[in-house]
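Risk register update: the risk of archive-format incompatibility is retired. Evidence:
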Amino acid sequence: MKQQANQIRPGWVIEHEGKEWSVIKINLIQPGKGGAFIQVDMRDVNTGIKTNARWRTVDTVEKLTTESFDCQYLYSEGDSLVFMNIENYDQFNVPADLMGDSKAFLQDGMQVVVDFIEGRPISVTLPPQVVLTVTETEPSLKGQTVTTSYKPAMLENGLRITVPPFVNAGEKIVVSTADASYVERAK
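Archived output:
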């Protein structure tokens, strides 16, 4: 179905130049001179190759119809990830590179949404936030809490992020899956 380019959202699957593309990130750019345009980072559904494209906000794109299913992540098997459809308990494999860097956030039993085109899984949508344990970080210095500086930290899944100075090793924190940023301490 035709949609205006300024309606594009991450997670959509669009047709562009005869190929199916999964939208990863969008950026609305409003230059000082001339009309606004949309820059879209996207991944080819079939090959996994990333690219970007630009459209004027008045241009139209073809949004492909996908089927979405609530699924549960089970385990990884070589270069693929195994998921289970919660409704009918069917298990299926998804290539690990389809998820890109976000696969580091997968946890056993995690509930996700998997989009399919013609029976083929093409994207996995994670929950917006996950709880992870900080495995190592620098100790905070006395008086450092009054500044807005952040310090590097290593998480249990191997990701390095920056955290506020009051966060210590062994603490559980909430991390955004969209940009791998610190949100808050876990309750």
